[in-house]
Amino acid sequence: MQLVKPAGQRDAARKYDIITALGAYALARNKHDQRLVLRLITLMTARYNWARDELAVGQREIAQLWSVDERTVKRDMAKLRGMGWLVVKRQGARGRVTEYGLDLERILATTEGEWRNVGPDFDLRMSGKPEQTPIVPLPVKGHVPEPDTSSGSEWALAQAILYAEAPDLYGSWLRNLVRVERAGGRLTLRAPSRFHGSYVQTHLTRRILSACQAVDGDVTEIAVIV
Prior knowledge:
By secondary structure, the chain is mostly helical. It has helices at residues 12-27, 31-47, 59-66, 70-82, 104-111, 115-118, 120-127, 154-165, 167-174, 194-203, 205-215, and strands at 55-56, 86-90, 99-102, 178-183, 186-190, 221-225. The protein has 2 domains: 9-127, Winged helix-like DNA-binding domain superfamily/Winged helix DNA-binding domain (Arc Repressor Mutant, subunit A); 154-225, GMP Synthetase, Chain A, domain 3, CATH 3.30.300.
């Protein structure tokens, strides 16, 4: 399983997916495991820096957040390290708190068995399997014109492929995506609305990536912003 760590607005959905996976995992277990995972989720949402993979907070502050004593904090943090979910990046010393990271690969591997409880779409998305859910095109008034490929950009050429494969789908969801920038292997596209961007990110990024790679093999990632 290859995981892209969430960082920034474009990956907000991925953060929620990870938290959802943790919640589904906890709800399938006993009350002690549920409490432990709930404490981790609360710590993640309150103090975890997703971009830097950094969790730097003292036991006293954690105890206050969890409404427990510091002994409980010490015990539960040790459990989370033992599960491989928490990783010590820098041991605290001379007044500095211990800095932790999250092994998101391990977390997802552990919770994978419960993804199906959330729903087949979630299971497919998290496992990276090919999209199998039907995609219904939005109504499009009039004829959808062929994309303009005169710029010669990877996105313009990919649009031609996407149009040829499914004109209705292209007209509904893809023609209004605007190329923003290319940074290394990442191609960033802008959607006209939050809903539009969320739908494309969830259902169509693999299709877009495949078309882009057909014209430029150096494209490795598609980012959709609003």
